[in-house]
Protein backbone atom coordinates (compact mmCIF):
# COMPACT_ATOMS: atom_id res chain seq x y z
CA UNK A 1 0.00 0.00 0.00
CA UNK A 2 1.45 3.35 -1.05
CA UNK A 3 0.78 6.68 0.63
CA UNK A 4 1.80 9.65 -1.50
CA UNK A 5 1.69 13.38 -0.98
CA UNK A 6 1.59 15.92 -3.82
CA UNK A 7 3.83 18.99 -3.98
CA UNK A 8 2.52 21.45 -1.42
CA UNK A 9 3.45 24.63 0.38
CA UNK A 10 6.31 27.08 -0.11
CA UNK A 11 8.90 24.30 -0.15
CA UNK A 12 7.69 23.06 -3.52
CA UNK A 13 8.87 26.34 -5.10
CA UNK A 14 12.41 26.21 -3.63
CA UNK A 15 15.49 24.55 -5.17
CA UNK A 16 16.16 21.03 -3.92
CA UNK A 17 19.35 20.81 -1.85
CA UNK A 18 19.12 17.12 -0.96
CA UNK A 19 17.06 14.12 -1.95
CA UNK A 20 16.96 11.03 0.24
CA UNK A 21 15.53 7.55 0.09
CA UNK A 22 14.78 6.52 3.67
CA UNK A 23 14.10 2.94 4.70
CA UNK A 24 12.97 2.22 8.26
CA UNK A 25 12.43 -1.47 9.04
CA UNK A 26 11.23 -2.75 12.43
CA UNK A 27 11.08 -6.49 13.18
CA UNK A 28 9.34 -7.90 16.25
CA UNK A 29 10.07 -11.56 17.05
CA UNK A 30 8.09 -13.50 19.66
CA UNK A 31 8.77 -16.78 21.45
CA UNK A 32 5.23 -17.96 20.78
CA UNK A 33 2.24 -17.20 18.56
CA UNK A 34 0.65 -13.77 18.68
CA UNK A 35 -3.02 -13.91 17.85
CA UNK A 36 -3.57 -10.18 17.31
CA UNK A 37 -1.38 -7.07 16.97
CA UNK A 38 -2.61 -3.51 17.09
CA UNK A 39 -0.12 -0.83 16.11
CA UNK A 40 0.01 2.95 15.73
CA UNK A 41 2.95 5.10 14.85
CA UNK A 42 4.63 7.87 12.92
CA UNK A 43 6.65 6.56 9.99
CA UNK A 44 5.35 8.77 7.16
CA UNK A 45 7.35 12.02 6.81
CA UNK A 46 5.34 15.21 6.71
CA UNK A 47 5.52 18.17 4.35
CA UNK A 48 7.00 21.37 5.76
CA UNK A 49 8.33 24.67 4.41
CA UNK A 50 11.73 22.97 4.28
CA UNK A 51 10.96 19.54 2.83
CA UNK A 52 8.50 17.60 0.69
CA UNK A 53 7.57 13.94 0.94
CA UNK A 54 7.49 12.84 -2.70
CA UNK A 55 6.24 9.32 -1.94
CA UNK A 56 6.03 6.89 0.94
CA UNK A 57 4.96 3.30 1.44
CA UNK A 58 4.58 1.13 4.53
CA UNK A 59 4.60 -2.66 4.12
CA UNK A 60 3.40 -4.83 7.01
CA UNK A 61 3.94 -8.59 7.28
CA UNK A 62 1.72 -10.49 7.94
CA UNK A 63 -0.71 -8.32 5.96
CA UNK A 64 -3.05 -6.43 8.29
CA UNK A 65 -6.76 -7.06 8.37
CA UNK A 66 -7.28 -3.35 8.86
CA UNK A 67 -5.09 -0.29 8.33
CA UNK A 68 -5.52 3.42 7.87
CA UNK A 69 -3.57 6.66 7.76
CA UNK A 70 -4.67 10.00 9.10
CA UNK A 71 -3.53 13.33 10.49
CA UNK A 72 -3.16 14.14 14.18
CA UNK A 73 -3.75 17.45 15.96
CA UNK A 74 -0.27 18.70 14.97
CA UNK A 75 -0.67 17.81 11.30
CA UNK A 76 1.55 14.73 11.49
CA UNK A 77 0.72 11.71 9.35
CA UNK A 78 -0.07 8.73 11.56
CA UNK A 79 -0.53 5.06 10.74
CA UNK A 80 -2.85 2.51 12.36
CA UNK A 81 -2.98 -1.23 11.67
CA UNK A 82 -4.44 -4.46 13.03
CA UNK A 83 -2.92 -7.87 12.26
CA UNK A 84 -5.28 -10.73 13.08
CA UNK A 85 -3.30 -13.56 11.46
CA UNK A 86 -1.41 -15.62 14.10
CA UNK A 87 2.29 -14.85 13.82
CA UNK A 88 5.63 -15.14 15.60
CA UNK A 89 7.24 -12.31 13.64
CA UNK A 90 5.88 -8.90 12.71
CA UNK A 91 7.72 -6.71 10.21
CA UNK A 92 6.85 -3.06 9.58
CA UNK A 93 8.89 -1.52 6.79
CA UNK A 94 8.53 2.13 5.74
CA UNK A 95 10.17 3.56 2.63
CA UNK A 96 10.04 7.25 1.72
CA UNK A 97 11.53 9.62 -0.83
CA UNK A 98 12.13 13.11 0.54
CA UNK A 99 13.20 16.36 -1.09
CA UNK A 100 14.88 18.73 1.37
CA UNK A 101 15.12 22.45 0.72
CA UNK A 102 16.85 23.33 3.96
CA UNK A 103 16.28 26.14 6.47
CA UNK A 104 16.16 29.72 5.30
CA UNK A 105 19.38 31.01 6.85
CA UNK A 106 18.40 34.58 6.05
CA UNK A 107 16.09 34.45 9.06
CA UNK A 108 19.15 34.10 11.30
CA UNK A 109 20.48 37.44 10.09
CA UNK A 110 17.38 39.39 11.11
CA UNK A 111 14.77 39.61 13.82
CA UNK A 112 13.30 37.69 15.53
CA UNK A 113 16.22 35.24 15.80
CA UNK A 114 18.58 38.07 16.64
CA UNK A 115 16.10 39.93 18.82
CA UNK A 116 16.26 39.53 22.63
CA UNK A 117 15.07 36.07 23.56
CA UNK A 118 12.38 37.50 25.85
CA UNK A 119 10.52 38.75 22.75
CA UNK A 120 10.01 35.16 21.58
CA UNK A 121 7.76 34.30 24.50
CA UNK A 122 4.39 33.63 22.80
CA UNK A 123 1.82 36.18 23.87
CA UNK A 124 -1.43 37.54 22.48
CA UNK A 125 -3.14 36.40 19.32
CA UNK A 126 0.09 35.84 17.39
CA UNK A 127 1.43 33.38 19.93
CA UNK A 128 -1.85 31.62 20.69
CA UNK A 129 -1.07 28.48 18.67
CA UNK A 130 2.33 28.10 20.35
CA UNK A 131 1.28 28.58 23.95
CA UNK A 132 0.62 24.91 24.61
CA UNK A 133 4.29 24.28 23.79
CA UNK A 134 5.26 26.41 26.80
CA UNK A 135 3.34 24.22 29.23
CA UNK A 136 5.14 21.64 31.33
CA UNK A 137 4.37 17.94 30.96
CA UNK A 138 2.43 15.75 33.33
CA UNK A 139 4.10 14.63 35.53
CA UNK A 140 6.14 17.87 35.59
CA UNK A 141 9.67 17.95 34.19
CA UNK A 142 10.62 21.54 35.04
CA UNK A 143 12.15 21.67 38.50
CA UNK A 144 14.78 23.76 40.20
CA UNK A 145 17.59 21.74 38.61
CA UNK A 146 16.28 22.46 35.11
CA UNK A 147 15.86 26.17 35.86
CA UNK A 148 19.38 26.38 37.26
CA UNK A 149 20.88 24.56 34.29
CA UNK A 150 19.05 26.78 31.78
CA UNK A 151 19.79 30.12 33.43
CA UNK A 152 23.39 30.75 32.20
CA UNK A 153 22.27 30.56 28.56
CA UNK A 154 19.55 33.19 28.99
CA UNK A 155 20.93 36.42 30.44
CA UNK A 156 18.65 39.42 29.89
CA UNK A 157 18.27 40.63 26.30
CA UNK A 158 20.61 38.05 24.78
CA UNK A 159 19.69 37.36 21.11
CA UNK A 160 17.54 34.24 20.85
CA UNK A 161 19.82 32.46 18.40
CA UNK A 162 22.85 33.09 20.63
CA UNK A 163 21.00 31.72 23.65
CA UNK A 164 19.90 28.61 21.73
CA UNK A 165 23.38 27.99 20.34
CA UNK A 166 24.88 28.37 23.81
CA UNK A 167 22.37 25.93 25.33
CA UNK A 168 23.01 23.47 22.49
CA UNK A 169 26.77 23.61 23.03
CA UNK A 170 26.51 23.25 26.80
CA UNK A 171 24.33 20.14 26.58
CA UNK A 172 26.70 18.62 24.03
CA UNK A 173 29.68 19.40 26.28
CA UNK A 174 28.17 18.47 29.65
CA UNK A 175 26.41 15.19 28.76
CA UNK A 176 27.85 11.94 27.44
CA UNK A 177 26.08 10.11 24.63
CA UNK A 178 25.64 6.61 25.98
CA UNK A 179 23.42 4.20 24.05
CA UNK A 180 21.23 2.07 26.31
CA UNK A 181 21.74 4.27 29.36
CA UNK A 182 18.11 5.47 29.31
CA UNK A 183 14.67 4.42 28.09
CA UNK A 184 11.66 6.21 26.64
CA UNK A 185 10.35 6.68 30.17
CA UNK A 186 13.50 8.30 31.58
CA UNK A 187 12.77 11.65 33.22
CA UNK A 188 14.71 14.85 32.56
CA UNK A 189 15.77 15.04 36.22
CA UNK A 190 17.44 11.63 35.90
CA UNK A 191 19.31 12.73 32.76
CA UNK A 192 20.54 15.81 34.61
CA UNK A 193 21.73 13.66 37.48
CA UNK A 194 23.46 10.98 35.39
CA UNK A 195 24.86 13.44 32.83
CA UNK A 196 24.34 10.90 30.07
CA UNK A 197 21.67 9.79 27.63
CA UNK A 198 20.77 9.65 23.94
CA UNK A 199 19.39 12.12 21.41
CA UNK A 200 15.85 11.84 22.74
CA UNK A 201 17.02 12.74 26.26
CA UNK A 202 19.08 15.72 25.11
CA UNK A 203 16.17 17.05 23.05
CA UNK A 204 13.81 16.70 26.02
CA UNK A 205 16.30 18.42 28.35
CA UNK A 206 16.66 21.34 25.92
CA UNK A 207 12.88 21.62 25.63
CA UNK A 208 12.46 21.69 29.41
CA UNK A 209 15.11 24.41 29.66
CA UNK A 210 13.38 26.55 27.03
CA UNK A 211 9.99 26.13 28.67
CA UNK A 212 11.49 27.07 32.02
CA UNK A 213 12.21 30.50 30.49
CA UNK A 214 8.68 30.89 29.15
CA UNK A 215 9.59 29.92 25.58
CA UNK A 216 7.62 27.53 23.37
CA UNK A 217 9.55 24.42 22.36
CA UNK A 218 8.62 21.29 20.47
CA UNK A 219 10.07 17.79 20.15
CA UNK A 220 10.96 16.76 16.59
CA UNK A 221 11.37 13.19 15.40
CA UNK A 222 13.05 12.28 12.12
CA UNK A 223 16.33 11.25 10.52
CA UNK A 224 19.83 12.63 10.14
CA UNK A 225 21.89 11.71 7.10
CA UNK A 226 25.40 10.66 8.06
CA UNK A 227 28.53 10.63 5.91
CA UNK A 228 31.07 7.77 5.91
CA UNK A 229 34.66 8.50 6.92
CA UNK A 230 36.98 9.52 4.06
CA UNK A 231 37.84 6.52 1.92
CA UNK A 232 35.09 4.35 3.41
CA UNK A 233 31.91 3.18 1.69
CA UNK A 234 28.54 4.12 3.13
CA UNK A 235 27.19 1.24 5.23
CA UNK A 236 23.56 0.37 4.64
CA UNK A 237 21.11 0.07 7.51
CA UNK A 238 23.24 1.49 10.34
CA UNK A 239 21.50 4.86 10.59
CA UNK A 240 18.88 5.48 13.27
CA UNK A 241 15.89 7.60 14.05
CA UNK A 242 16.92 10.93 15.49
CA UNK A 243 15.40 13.57 17.74
CA UNK A 244 16.00 17.28 18.13
CA UNK A 245 14.17 20.39 19.33
CA UNK A 246 12.80 23.65 17.95
CA UNK A 247 11.93 26.96 19.59
CA UNK A 248 9.10 29.24 18.47
CA UNK A 249 9.73 32.74 17.16
CA UNK A 250 7.29 35.55 16.35
CA UNK A 251 5.89 35.19 12.86
CA UNK A 252 5.09 31.56 13.71
CA UNK A 253 8.56 30.40 12.68
CA UNK A 254 10.58 27.73 14.48
CA UNK A 255 14.33 27.60 14.97
CA UNK A 256 15.43 23.96 15.04
CA UNK A 257 18.60 22.79 16.75
CA UNK A 258 20.31 19.51 17.65
CA UNK A 259 22.02 19.35 21.06
CA UNK A 260 23.26 15.81 20.39
CA UNK A 261 25.48 17.08 17.58
CA UNK A 262 25.93 20.69 18.73
CA UNK A 263 24.49 22.33 15.62
CA UNK A 264 21.52 24.08 14.12
CA UNK A 265 19.38 21.88 11.89
CA UNK A 266 20.23 21.99 8.17
CA UNK A 267 19.49 20.09 4.96
CA UNK A 268 20.86 16.82 6.38
CA UNK A 269 17.76 16.52 8.58
CA UNK A 270 14.39 15.14 7.52
CA UNK A 271 11.31 15.56 9.69
CA UNK A 272 8.78 12.82 10.32
CA UNK A 273 6.67 14.39 13.06
CA UNK A 274 6.63 16.85 15.94
CA UNK A 275 4.75 17.29 19.20
CA UNK A 276 5.14 18.42 22.77
CA UNK A 277 7.13 15.32 23.73
CA UNK A 278 8.33 11.92 22.50
CA UNK A 279 5.08 10.36 23.70
CA UNK A 280 3.19 12.34 21.05
CA UNK A 281 5.16 10.94 18.10
CA UNK A 282 6.72 7.48 18.74
CA UNK A 283 7.76 5.61 15.57
CA UNK A 284 5.67 2.62 16.69
CA UNK A 285 3.69 1.51 19.70
CA UNK A 286 0.96 -1.04 20.15
CA UNK A 287 -0.73 -3.90 21.94
CA UNK A 288 -0.41 -7.65 21.29
CA UNK A 289 -2.41 -10.64 22.48
CA UNK A 290 -0.14 -13.61 23.20
CA UNK A 291 1.05 -16.09 25.79
CA UNK A 292 4.64 -15.74 24.58
CA UNK A 293 7.08 -15.00 27.39
CA UNK A 294 9.81 -13.32 25.37
CA UNK A 295 10.12 -10.90 22.49
CA UNK A 296 12.85 -9.01 20.68
CA UNK A 297 12.89 -5.94 18.48
CA UNK A 298 15.36 -5.14 15.72
CA UNK A 299 15.41 -1.78 13.94
CA UNK A 300 17.27 -0.95 10.74
CA UNK A 301 17.34 2.57 9.29
CA UNK A 302 18.99 3.67 6.07
CA UNK A 303 19.13 7.30 4.89
CA UNK A 304 20.49 7.06 1.34
CA UNK A 305 21.33 10.24 -0.59
CA UNK A 306 19.77 10.23 -4.06
CA UNK A 307 20.93 13.61 -5.31
CA UNK A 308 23.06 16.52 -4.13
CA UNK A 309 22.91 19.80 -6.02
CA UNK A 310 25.82 22.17 -6.53
CA UNK A 311 26.80 23.90 -3.26
CA UNK A 312 26.25 27.33 -4.84
CA UNK A 313 22.61 26.52 -5.61
CA UNK A 314 20.71 29.45 -4.07
CA UNK A 315 18.37 28.72 -1.19
CA UNK A 316 14.90 30.19 -1.12
UniProtKB/TrEMBL annotation:
InterPro entries: Bac_transglu_N (IPR013589), Papain-like_cys_pep_sf (IPR038765), Transglutaminase-like (IPR002931). It holds the Pfam family Bact_transglu_N. The keyword Repeat does not apply. GO terms for molecular function: peptidase activity. Keywords: Hydrolase, Protease. One of its GO terms (biological process) is proteolysis. Residues 191-261 form the Transglutaminase-like domain. This is Protein containing transglutaminase-like domain, putative cysteine protease.
Amino acid sequence: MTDTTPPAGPAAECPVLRRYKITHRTTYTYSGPVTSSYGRGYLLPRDTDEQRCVASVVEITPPPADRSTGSDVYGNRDLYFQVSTPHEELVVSAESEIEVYGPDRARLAAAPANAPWELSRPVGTEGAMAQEFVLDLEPPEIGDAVREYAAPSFPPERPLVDAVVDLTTRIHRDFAYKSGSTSVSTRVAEVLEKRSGVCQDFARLAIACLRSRGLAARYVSGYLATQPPPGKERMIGIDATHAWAAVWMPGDRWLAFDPTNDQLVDERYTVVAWGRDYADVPPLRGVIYTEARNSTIAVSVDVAPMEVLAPDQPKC
